[in-house]
Amino acid sequence: MDRIAIVGGARLNGEIQISGAKNSAIKLMAASLLTDEPLRLTNMPRLADTRFLGTLLTRLGTMVDERNGAETILHTPEIVSSFAPYDLVRQMRASFNVLGPLIARTGQAKVSLPGGCTIGARPVDLHLKALEALGAQIDLHEGYVYAQAPRGLRGAEIEFPFVSVGATEHAMLTAVLAKGVTVLSNAACEPELGDLADCLNKMGAQVEGAGTSEIRIIGVKKLSGATHAVITDRIEAGTYAVAAAMAGGEVRLTNTRADLIEALLVKIEEAGAQVERMNDGVIIRRNGARLKAVDVDTGVYPGFATDLQAQFMALMTMADGESVIREHIFENRFMHVPELNRLGADITVSGGEARVRGVDRLEGAQVMATDLRASVSLVIAGLAAEGETMVGRVYHLDRGFERLEEKLGACGANVRRIKGEGPAEAEG
Ligand code: EPZ
Fold it and tell me: Does the predicted model carry a pTM greater than 0.85?
């Protein structure tokens, strides 16, 4: 397995081009199951997660054609199998989102339940309730969802008891081909929802209100092919914004939008770094002055993203004072804390709250993490730590960060990948 070595101390200066969003790309890929015509996706990130899903889609009957650059064409003339096995769904939870499109297209499906993951239990009860409301009959046996809709899917009013990104997306992906009108209330407002709705509408769907808490979908009989550019990855942009604030220097993030990470940018400014919001991105600057500790509460969009919590915690390890970071989305998302402490941080966790007392220096060490965003927080800490930080289990990073060492290296960071033996794995 590969490792990443970082020698801390270099300031970052330069430009980083942000890729298309992983968490949108994988839902858009699933949308390709809804039509027998080709779906052409541009601004596609090249990641382990998009490859995992490509493997599953290929088994279901999709031809996945990765062109040069960032273009992928997905074409499913016919569904050849409605079966998504445990091994493939376990590797990437979002694979579960093929369930609705398979039912919509073929009237039945057998898809593995994803199981828990390192950041929390992550049940799929809201997904299943939404599909049932849309007319699917669901049975659970031996870890699999057996779904049927012999009389087809029909529109429904679905009120989510709390906000779920995945369940809202799944309901939307399923309802576009249901007969009649579907209204999703207390829907997630994350930008990736808007991106999915834009793509579905280009395919001929009628989705209104995505990006607000009420989404209205008028079902259509058939969807067509389309061309769609994947929205910018706000979590990648936020991660490099934090990296620049940690290392110091001046970094311009392009191919992205400041408004998508506003909750983070405000916190970076409060901490004492400068932020310049541009039309096509954002510039982060920090001179030598020490940052101040600031508190953070994660929340649903437009709140502070849980997917940026670990990175911001890394930033706070060397700030002046004590920062309180509260995680409100996942119950177990502090797996990075013991690893940051190995680098010399002073963090204690109690329930959903972490107290980060800023230290004067971090010191490089061997570390590893158990999820994607936790891993990158260790890279960020390594940028400011004295000596060498060696981050293991890099397959987590590869799930969601495209060419990370190249992008950071081009700005002057001393980061290198050490190739290792053994298979890559994934979960979550
Ligand atoms: C998406 O996960 C993202 N993943 C996550 O990013 C992100 O952290 C999360 O949204 C929140 O923004 C993808 O898009 C692939 P949820 P998702 O359903 O859809 C509970 C990353 O690092 N819940 O909004 O799974 C759930 O356990 C990943 O890129 C139920 O109880 O998140 C959680 O506590 C990690 N029952 C909360 O809701 C359900 O049926 C919110 O989860 C569904 C969810």
Answer: yes
